[in-house]
Amino acid sequence: MAAVLESLLREEVSVEAAVRWIARSAQSSEDDPGEAAALSALQPLRKEFVPFLLNFLREQSSRVLPQGPPTPAKAPGASAALPARAGGQPRGSRGARSQLFPPTEAPSTAAEAPLARRGGRRRCPGPARERGGRGPGGPEEGVGGESVPWAGGRRLRGSGSPSGPSLALSDPPNLSNLEEFPPVGLVPPGPAGRTKPSRRINPTPVSEERSLSKPKTCFTSPPISCVPSSQPSERYESGSPLPSRTGNLTDEPADPARVSSRQRLELVALVYSSCIAENLVPNLFLELFFVLQLLTARRMVTAKHSDREPSPDALDSLENPLFQSIHDFSLAEAFGLCFHWPLGCMFVPNTGAVVSLAMPPSAQAVSFQPETDNRANFSSDRAFHTFKKQRDVFYEVLREWEDHHEEPGWDFEKGLGSRIRAMMGQLSTACSHSHFVRLFQKQLLQMCQHPGGAGAAVLGEAPDVLSMLGADKLGRLRRLQERLVAPQSSGGPCPPPTFPGCQGFFRDFILSASSFQFNQHLMDSLSLKIRDLNGLALPQQEPSDDGESDVDWQGERRQFAVVLLSLRLLAKFLGFVAFLPYRGPEPPPTGELQDSILALRSQVPPVLDVRALLQQGLRAHRAVLTVPWLVEFLSFADHVVPLLDYYRSVFTLLLHLHRSLVLSQENEGEMCFLNKLLLLAVLGWLFQIPTVPEDLFFLEEGQLDPFEVDTVASEHGLDSVPVVDQQLLYTCCPYIGELRKLLASWVSGSSGRSGGFVRKITPTTTTTTGLGAQPPQTSQGLQAQLAQAFFHNQPPSLRRTVEFVAERIGSNCVKHIKATLVADLVHQAELLLQEQLVTQGQDGGDPAQLLEILCSQLCPHGAQALTQGREFCQRKSPGAVRALLPEETPAAVLSSAESIAVGLATEKACAWLSANITALIRREVKAAVSRTLRAQGPEPAAWGERRGCSHACEHHAPLPSHLISEIKDVLSLAVGPRDPEEGVSPEHLEQLLGQLGQTLRCRQFLCPPAEQHLAKCSVELASLLVADQIPVLGPPAQHRLERGQARRLLLMLLALWKDDFQGPVPLQLLLSPRNVGLLADTRPREWDLLLFLLRELVEKGLMGRLEIEACLGSLREAQWPGDFSEELATLFNLFLAEPHLPEPQLRVCELVQPNRGAVLAQS
Amino acid sequence: MILTKAQYDEIAQCLVSVPPTRQSLRKLKQRFPSQSQATLLSIFSQEYQKHIKRTHAKHHTSEAIESYYQRYLNGVVKNGAAPVLLELANEVDYAPSLMARLILERFLQEHEETPPSKSVINSMLRDPSQIPDGVLANQVYQCIVNDCCYGPLVDCIKHAIGHEHEILLRDLLLEKNLSFLDEDQLRAKGYDKTPDFILQVPVAVEGHIIHWIESKASFGDECSHHAYLHDQFWSYWNRDRVSLCCPASLVTGITSVSYCTWLGIIHLGCDV
């Protein structure tokens, strides 16, 4: 180690190269060959450099810091002889990180050190667990007396491996830490009782004033000072001026000129800061804490200077601690610069931050969950009843805990243990267990989502309690509050995992219940919930600049915070329960025992596949969500866990992630600064957990490369979104607050006899709660809570009713919108489409294109859906609620229920509508378009506008089918063959045509094909009339229709064709060769009816003259008997000769006096 | 009006080997004056169709076609105005319209290079004026107007009856204040196979619960009922899951051109 430093100091190697060398095992091309050679010679030491450096700095500064440990023996011999030191190096290269600078070990032997240390550990297994000053090997209790295994473990350790007397001395007033730091009398003095060197980097307590404060209990800060507690007052009473509140160190009479070996010091500082910047140190905040300690250590220089012993490594320049302090201050500033991180923001109380009355979190019960808690979900009435009873017992126990847990002498196990176990005993069936676990978990989340049982205020805007109380006496109130509520120290910059506040209840409950079934169900439930929450889609868009979306953004950030904190809480309990069976007071197994345990444990599948979740999280760039809860989970791991392959790979991933989170590199698209900071803080904390072997951090690095972690967030990753804010950071990592406290205590100076932290100046960003138990974050949140509270006091049926009504009305609202707004839009679409088809011709263009055009015109109207939907819910819900609730419901309750139902229904409907209305309109319009295009049919326009029946129509007309059948009969009679007696009467024919008129005028039963056939049949009938082919009933002589009758019938037909047929009538068939040919068979041939018909057709506009002429022309081309052709030609000429507008009178005359002879004569 | 099974059998008995002509129908009406022409025609039509289905194949052998065609040609050569084709059809016990089609196809094969498409044939049968040969056109037309069981006119009549009875049924439902969804509404809702009407509120008829109604506009004899059951009704049942009860005895208790299936019960009375 020293060799490396020395080569640095001799300037053989540049700082940059050294840091590169530490960070990466392979030499980089940037390295100077000379440097590379120098460093490669030291290769075996690479991994031990950082621990060495850190411990070296602490070692040196321990003499500087006023309350620093009594300087441990630095002499090689003395150091090696210290059993405590062996104990401080429990395994592997942990010793490398021990506080003891290992001067005895020559660089050449350093590589063998682990072996030697292992042996040392074996010799002394008890103290080995101590891990230096790290304190408890397990979670630390937050509040109240504990009877958990760890407590026992600590006791055992406390007596078995006595702390040094200095330790005891340092902490006499802190009764709650008696176990941790037993009074001196209890500790047998002796070599083993000497201060245990910490394998961790030990930030030493700053000043004697802090002897009463919690930071003393910080397990990374062993109270190694043996300075009597009275010392601080002596010191400050010595007349030295109080430091100014600005904390400006330039006030100090420090004279850099008096510093020796300044250059060397600067070099060391540079290496140190580079290591920190490159994340080569396990815990960023611990280093900052240390630096701050140095900075705030003042005035002790002269007092301590005499204690200094010659440094064995000849770095005499470090003798002047003041210089180092000053230098480190600039180093701290350098951090700030290189991190782009205003240090001030960390330490200066955030003025806008939460100041509110801290209230004990109230145990609001989880309300009845109708969907799961109803009878149907239980196997039997008995089970249901038991569950209900258990619920009551659970809340009774909870209430009692709330009332008593802070009383001295109250013991959870004694007070509640038997009752809890009795209750668990009644949960006979698996089903009951799952129900109870669900209740337990919900209650846990409800009460403890925030650390220390603090309210939600830390997450969002603090409710302005003070202004609620009035501005008057505001300052006083604030002071009073601050005095009343001593901020809970979180136990130093690296506290052990704890169960603060209400969490303690749940932990103790689990322990007291000691029910295997309960634990298993709880793990199942927690795992599921964790998976659910971890997979939750969270906001991913960047907050934009405009204020409006900023409001949304605040909400989204809050949501992230809630999810993150819930996950951490759940994971903490999952870890607690999952590793519970493996934790105990006994020291971690060693040797063969450990191997066999490892072999066994490696067979056990993990309770939750955290590795997969972590990998997913990294891939999806959601590390900022996944890692914090994972850390909580792992913090409860037992000593064996990190040795298991599965978890080792998890740790390796985490290590690599840690290394990649270089704060100074903030590129576009990369993880946001505060997100990184959060991860660094939690990871750093995890690496300090006693169960995590320290060699993990320094030894694993070689294996990191395969786990290339890409921290460049994809554009949609959560990591690149600034979801973490300062408040969340403090909430998740309250120990960061220790830095503030350190500064604060320094800034405030001595508060005289009160000792310890000065409460009134303590920044209050930590534990805060609103006036009420659950301070609402927004008015919406408040409404929701009010609604919850409202339902809580009402019979469950009320809630069910309101929810049911809301659900149905919401759904109906959507249907209503579909039937009204959307239907209207579809109708519009059809009209537009018709227009389009008219203007663009038949095909109208590509249907897909048409659809696009229509949708672009119509979809914007979908916005009305929300307004209409809101209006609908407003209108419909109250009535429904009123109808469903009992008549006797009080008016106020009724009106509240109504408004809640309106709100819920609107929420439901609008949520659906806003998400789906466009798609819905699109779908419906698409269907309408294809329907319309299909209905276009082959002859769309030809049918023209179709008329329905008149209003007076009673639909009594003969059925079309009947008429077709009748006409067909007439046709078949006319065409033959027929019996001699067969025939039709002229009256029947007239009647038939009359009926045809009725049918055509009543459209009720008429379908287009029927009308087509009727038209065709009527034309055939006309042809037969013209050809005089219809057999008339009556005397044999009179087998033919009279001319007048025929004309009358033809006129009826003409009227039908003109007025009543709505479809096309194939009139050209009248002049088809087949029908005209019918005339050929008659003798003598009668042309006048045909001529009459043609004239009428033209006059009525049924056929154009040109059309008729064309038909006549084509008729002449057909083959006819010679005489027929001549007559046909005559008819043709006759028709052509007629004036275009024949006089009406002539035709009247013809009608009245049918004169066949005249017609023929004309021809 | 209810037709008993015995009455039905008697009518059916009379229809064995009777040509589907106006005259046959007239005789039938004389024989069963109490039955409406529509009912008799429907039964006649169904019986005749069954007969044609049985004998169809023998008329479609190339030998048969050739022989018919030659007989037709010989006939028209002797007298083009005589009902050659119609008589031929009656003689060989085949439907006149179908015979007309057969001969027309054969004729076109002879006179055109390419075999005529089905649509051309159909179009010529609908409008014989399009037939290039005047004599054949008249012959075909005669067959079509004289055939009361086949042909485009009969098809149109059947279609019209179906349409009319659907409307009649709808009117009846409206008159009785029964709320229903019709086929179009059902299709709009995405049903693939739909009955004519689904009752929104089921009703009970003679102890049977009716959920939907399908109007078939034809006489509900056993054979067609089973065919419809197979093709349609079970599909409705599969979709609507309503109990479908179909007492066989009820099947014959019907008289109507239009038979309505009310949940498997053949409903009569649509002889409006």
Automatic annotation (TrEMBL), chain A:
The lineage of its organism: Eukaryota, Metazoa, Chordata, Craniata, Vertebrata. Residues 218-233 have a biased composition (Polar residues). Residues 134-145 have a biased composition (Gly residues). This is Codanin 1. Signal peptide: none annotated. GO terms for biological process: chromatin organization. Residues 719-834 form the Codanin-1 C-terminal domain. It comes from the Eukaryota. Residues 63-258 are annotated as: Disordered. The gene is CDAN1. One of its GO terms (cellular component) is nucleus. Residues 74-88, 102-117, 158-170 have a biased composition (Low complexity).
TrEMBL record, chain B:
Its main location: cytoplasm. It holds the Pfam family TPD. Keywords: Cytoplasm, Nucleus. It is found in: Cytoplasm; Nucleus. InterPro entries: CDIN1. GO terms for cellular component: cytoplasm; nucleus. This is CDAN1-interacting nuclease 1. It comes from Prolemur simus (Greater bamboo lemur).
